[in-house]
Amino acid sequence: MNKIITFCLGLLIILSACSSDTSRQFECSDPLGCVRIYPGGSVKIASLQALSGSLSLLGKEYVRTMELAAAKSGSSIHGFPISIVTEDGSCTREGGFIAARKIISDSTIVGVHGTTCSISTIPAAGIISEAGMVMISGCSTAPDLTGDEHGMGEYWQPGFFRTAPNDRYQAIAAAHFAYNELKHRKAATVSDGDPYTRGLVTSFERSFVELGGEIVFSSEVNRGDKNMIPLLQAIAGTEAEILFFPIFPPEGNYIVEQAKTISSLNSLDLMSADGLLNSVFVDSIGSPGKGMYFIGPGLPEGEKYEEFFHDFLELFEVEPNGTFQAHNYDAAMILLDSIKKTSYLLDDGSLIIERQALRDHIRSLKEFPGLTGILECNDLGDCGIPKFKLFRLDDPYAGYIALQQNVISTFEYDPDNP
Hints:
Layout: H1 2-18, E1 34-37, E2 43-49, H2 56-72, E3 76-77, E4 80-88, H3 93-104, E5 109-114, H4 118-130, E6 134-137, E7 147-148, E8 151-152, E9 160-162, H5 167-181, E10 186-191, H6 195-211, E11 214-220, H7 229-236, E12 242-244, H8 251-259, E13 269-272, H9 279-285, E14 293-296, H10 303-316, H11 325-342, E15 343-345, E16 351-354, H12 355-363, E17 368-370, E18 373-375, E19 387-392, H13 400-405, E20 407-412
Parallel strand pairs: 2-4, 2-5, 5-6, 6-9, 10-11, 10-12, 12-13, 13-14
Antiparallel strand pairs: 1-16, 3-4, 7-8, 14-19, 15-16, 17-18, 19-20
């Protein structure tokens, strides 16, 4: 009898060894590595937005689009709760650098949602991509973050994607509006020197000239500048009919306010872009902003956006006001959906996310049903639809939503007929 018991125990030990938990022997073969989340852990997502400075209200709103996307995804992936870590890029190069370094110090973070500003994205995307992580932005639009039909951009990174449309095409739309819709033939431009504004201005100038227009003045301001009178007087000395200045508050406010004090500029049309196309600017500019033009992607229409708007209001008790609210929500949903589709469970209940597989899935994305349309990503990381609207601020006191509803014209870039 003892021999039988001994034999059975030995057999059980052998069988136990043969059927041992294979998950304990798991070896990651992904070239960028794997994130292994054990039972009791969570799927960590970092939302890197501008949480301080003049655009902090927008940054906080875009964090909320990530939170809403998580809630709409059931707040979990394969049974693991979604945990959102927030970091402040502050819409500066230094802010993006510091926040990205903090993010990569936590190897359990799966992906990054952000940033709010292209100037923060440039250092952040490099650091995060080098660490093997994936990053997807809903509002960083500088052309060189991805590239265009002419090739890869200066700041392209293999781990960076965006649902916001590339400013290369926004610049083409701006030139089209200025030349064909507003009938101007002489333009002035002002940037603040950062890659976003400089890239947008450079592309606008090229496109405007190609259409037959002339750039009669081009200059830069520095962030922190307050006295715009010398700049505006120089513009007044030209024959410019329109000033294109795709910059941010507060410098954008100073240009608009001080332009109204120079009588010879009364007939000069002012046109800005998404840096000022937001409630932060509209709520602060008052009467000097009357008659201004803005170019931007605009808000979506239809039942899906109405549902998003209702859900956002219900969850946070405030209406979304950012120009890129829908784009940020789409970025969040793409990230969460891609994590879900490329992750898997081991026998011990732990969850595996392969970093290269996650990147590859986003890069090959096709027919994703986003708020902003049916999305797909190209090899350079652009997933947004290059469709833009021209808005005019007829009543500065009616608010941002009224501005968004005052659409003068629309333009969609056609790659087959550039």
